[in-house]
Amino acid sequence: MTHLSDIEIAQAKQLQHIKSIAEKLHIIEDDLEMYGKYKAKLPLFLIDDAKIAKNNLVLVTALTPTPAGEGKTTVSIGLTEGLNKIGKQATVVLREPSLGPVFGIKGGAAGGGYSQVVPMEDINLHFTGDFNAVEKANNLLAALIDNNIQSKTNNLNIDPRTILWKRVIDMNDRALRDITIGLGGTANGVPRQDGFNITPASEVMAILCMATNLENLKKRLGDIFIGFTYDNTPVFARDLKAENAMAILLKDAIKPNLVQTLEENPAIIHGGPFANIAQGTNTIIATKMGLSLSNYVVTEAGFGADLGAEKFLNIKSQFAGLNPKCVVLVATLRALRHHGGAKAAAYNTADLEKVKEGFKNLEKHIENIRKFNIEPVVAINSFVSDTDEEIQFVIEKCASLGVTAVVSEGWVKGGEGTRNLAKAVVDVVENKATQYKPLYDWKSPITDKIEIIAKEIYGAEKVVFDNKALLNLKRIDRLGFNDFAVCMAKTQKSFSDDDKLIGRPTGFSITVREIEIAAGAQFVIPILGKMMRMPGLPSIPASEHMNIDNDGVISGLS
To answer: Which of 106, 136, 192, 219 is catalytic?
Structure first.
């Protein structure tokens, strides 16, 4: 087993020029917009609907994770390597990492061990500037709003108390959640309450991930709902004539990014919404790009299947007309021990009884995936603390449910360690794949859609709407947004909205505190329990363990 860190493994790799990776997708060099030797943007004209319909989409998700995550990105990359090892042409399509988690808890999000995308440091840091472009487009609109309030000649009569649009920054910074702006005299604007969200939670990020082309992007940006005038007329970004300038800032960010895996297979990385507070999947454009260029596309959705996968299937796939043919559920024995009642200090201590109890969580996720008319495969992401007895229990228990469970060793062996997983996925795609079906129709009432997700996916007994949420529902109805999709904001640590209810809780209620509107993205965001859209840093941030030497070599990023 390797003793090298993720970043040491990545830095030891001699990367191929990106034009060589593009050749594997039959892309000529003139069609690449290169960012140095190892990164490139792909033009949108490469998307081909006829090819998309013929190729195979595989979604990687997970059981309810422990705080450190269970390795969906690592498994996604490893599975792609394994598919190529067994003779399938496969590309992995992923989200871009956010600097918040990179410097917060995770320390990086480009896979791990020998299942990584590279150049790892670039991908984890500023990459090709997409997050910066989203941030600037978001904050341009914020500046235009406050400028309009200040203006004497071009004033839309916006009531500052109703403004819903927040500024964003790609960093975990709890001090920015609630702020006051415009202080210091009349030249500095009109004082009002404001706040910051983290960039992945920006509606601009959601729009980028839902857009199908530049014209569609512009329309969606114009449809952003800002607030109301003093006479209670709704105000949209188009009323400020903001959409063209915002789209200009996003003109390069709309193009997917091509990089490579450690085994020199293509990887497309684009967009980065979180799954607990946003839709949690890469862009529609990136997924369609991958399906236009590869026979197999492996993509992932954030956190547990109750979050990222639910949104991938109910929002993204339904809107984009995608047909995922297999869902890989990532499980780890440490997560099963956690859901069986083990404390953090005992996650890596073998305990068959806790694994048996924790399996109830995985079983609920298996049931949920089947509600979408898709067959799952369970990938047991291996750790050194796993025992044969625990692994055999999971395999046999899954088999009793008619599900194939396979040990995935991509972290330590790369594609060689995921051959069996790749074969299991191909078996489902070629022999068991059916037409997926969403869980709800977008045209259903908002409350119905929320209750379907809460009861069918989470297992809730009932849904409680706080007074603010009830007022928000009236606003949604008045604005004519009832046929929007629903993008839940919920803790990733539990099926419920209480992060202490591990395993498979029953008899609980879901509380909808308020409901935000993302009109440009065409979904509403119910805020469940205590969820916030600006995270804070942990007491010991990952940034404390990072270093850069005089030659510019980074360490501690993993």
So the answer is: 106
Q: Which residues of the chain have pLDDT under 70?
A: 1-2, 107
**Domains (range + CATH), the chain:** 6-128+261-431 (3.40.50.300), 130-249 (3.30.1510.10), 446-528 (3.10.410.10)
pLDDT value of residue 530:
85
Helix, coil or strand: residue 447: helix
Task: Report the amino acid identity of residue 81.
Answer: E
pLDDT in tens, 450-471: 999 999 999 999 999 999 999 9
Q: Is 383 a catalytic residue?
A: yes
Q: Is 478 a catalytic residue?
A: no
Catalytic residue among 131, 228, 303, 508: 303
pLDDT of 1 reads 45
User: Whole-angstrom Cα distance, residue 44 to residue 417?
Assistant: 34
303 is catalytic: yes
Can you tell me the distance from the alpha carbon of 543 to that of 215, in angstroms, rounded to the nearest whole number? 39
Question: 3-state secondary structure string, 77-91?
Answer: HHHHHHHHHCCCCEE
Q: Which amino acid is at 71?
A: G
Q: Which one is catalytic: 242, 275, 278, 405?
A: 275
442 a catalytic residue: no
Supply the pTM of this predicted model: 0.96
Give me the amino acid identity at 127: F
Is residue 312 part of the annotated active site? The answer reads no
Q: Is 22 a catalytic residue?
A: no
pLDDT of residue 2: 47
484/6 Cα distance (integer angstroms) = 41
Active-site annotation holder among 162, 320, 371, 383: 383
Instruction: Tell me the three-class secondary structure of 120-174, residue by residue.
Output: HHHHHCCCCCHHHHHHHHHHHHHHHHHHHHHCCCCCCCECHHHCCCCEEECCCCH
Residue 439 has which token pair? Answer: 């869980």
